[in-house]
Amino acid sequence: MSGPRPGRRGAGGRGAGGRGAGGRGRSTRPPRDRDPVRLAALSVLRAVRVEDGYTNLVLPAVLAQHELSGRDAAFVTELAAGTIRRQGTYDAILAACIDRPLRKVESKVLDALRLGTHQLLGMRVPAHAAISTTVDLVRAKVSPGAAGFTNAVLRKVSARDLTGWLAEVAPEDATDHLGHLAVVHSHPRWVVERLEQALDGVGAAEEVGDLLAADNRAPRVTLVARPGLAERDELPGEPTPYSPFGTVLGTGGDPGAVPAVVQGRAGVQDEGSQLVAVALAQAPVDGRDERWVDLCAGPGGKAALLAALAAERGAHLVGAELHDHRAKLVARAARASKGAVGLAGVVQTDSTHAPFADDSIDRVLLDAPCTGLGALRRRPEARWRRTVADLEDLVALQRALLAEAVRVVRPGGALLYATCSPVLEETAQVVSAALADTPGVRLDDVRPVLGEVPDADGPLPGTVQLWPHRHSTDAMFLALLRKD
């Protein structure tokens, strides 16, 4: 594992405290002044833990607060996001180095220990710098006693590399296959089990290690050119292999420096999400093609692309969203993209009781609320927040939403059900229940409308399942339903 080399104020610069926690000549200035880089990373971990923040949303605000950019910003991003991704692995290692349960370690100290462990085992930071800077941070933010404890623990961690530690804390054991994978790849055991079952549903259970490893690789930034507003050729990066509208930026690419993004004619959107909009827009319909609805439109990325596609045909999209702040994001995305020409409006509503007449909508997108276990590359904290109870609640919601989507789509129209999760309870089982419960509803083949997307057969005939390790996308599930 490796990460960006620390910048001017990183492990090798003036934030290193390079003579160790107790060495002579150590500056008397507080770590806030000396090491804003690691202080920023610690702030991200706290916001994610205490405020239920999302790493990718918390980072920009923290970087701005500490006035960090360039190499320093890259270092903070890798340190914070990498620590959260590998938290399960690092906790197993820390547990082997501490003589009490981790739950009895003060939360602020545990955050710092995880940061230090990631520097030691997952980044190219010299051991003395990783230890001394973490100790300084704990001394300033907690207490001298906690700093001494931190020093002792991290010195134990530094005695081995990651491979050596995994051999001790997660030896291969045929009797506990799931437990081994959970520690090695830093996923909760129940998540490993569900992802393996999802792969087994497409005949590829042996790929679970590859999928888990892909979840721990930070994704590259993907852009989308909104049709009628921007051309893909004007966006930097390599064309996406499957979406006709996307490009993939190289490492370190800044979407904020792309004129079309700044002007709202393009946006940042995973290729898998682009393909959801493409699939609905390209699905053939019989007769009228004027009224499109996105039943769960927040935060607005798919709605903005669909609105642009609708506008090209003289159709209009209505975005429906339950939560006020997400409904506002949909409206903002449409305004920013100037795609409002294809957006008839945003309705704040509970889409389990959608305000649309029976058989009235030509195209319906139901990108259902889900566990998000297909987007762990971008939302690493989701793996530690979601529970089996959450899954059960979400499945009930998904079934209710799909029943309502079936009600409003007209015969001859197109209904696309999508989730950012490959978990079978949220994909095949929800769709199968809808087919069983509703006479006259059938499953159509969505694959032809997407063109050549290899190795993407879903768990039900005609469905599509994308994968991070196969397609470098989020693990989007797509099913096209028709009503006779």
UniProtKB/TrEMBL annotation:
Q: What ranges does the record give for the region Disordered, renumbered to this chain?
A: 1-36
> Where's the SAM-dependent MTase RsmB/NOP-type domain?
194-484
Which CDD domains does the UniProt record give?
AdoMet_MTases
Under the heading PROSITE patterns, the entry gives: SAM_MT_RSMB_NOP
Annotated source species: Nocardioides faecalis
Q: Give the organism's phylogenetic lineage.
A: Bacteria, Bacillati, Actinomycetota, Actinomycetes, Propionibacteriales
Note whether tRNA processing occurs among the keywords: no
Source organism, top-level taxon: Bacteria
Q: Which GO terms describe its molecular function?
A: RNA binding; RNA methyltransferase activity
Q: What is this protein called?
A: Methyltransferase domain-containing protein
**Pfam (any one):** NusB
- Active site (record annotation): C420 (nucleophile)
GO BP annotations, alphabetical order: regulation of DNA-templated transcription; RNA methylation
Listed SUPFAM superfamilies: NusB-like, S-adenosyl-L-methionine-dependent methyltransferases
The residues that the entry says bind S-adenosyl-L-methionine are C296, A297, G298, P299, G300, G301, K302, E321, D350, D367
The Swiss-Prot or TrEMBL record describes its family as follows: Belongs to the class I-like SAM-binding methyltransferase superfamily. RsmB/NOP family.
Keywords, in A-Z order: Methyltransferase, RNA-binding, S-adenosyl-L-methionine, Transferase
Give start-end positions of Gly residues composition bias: 9-25
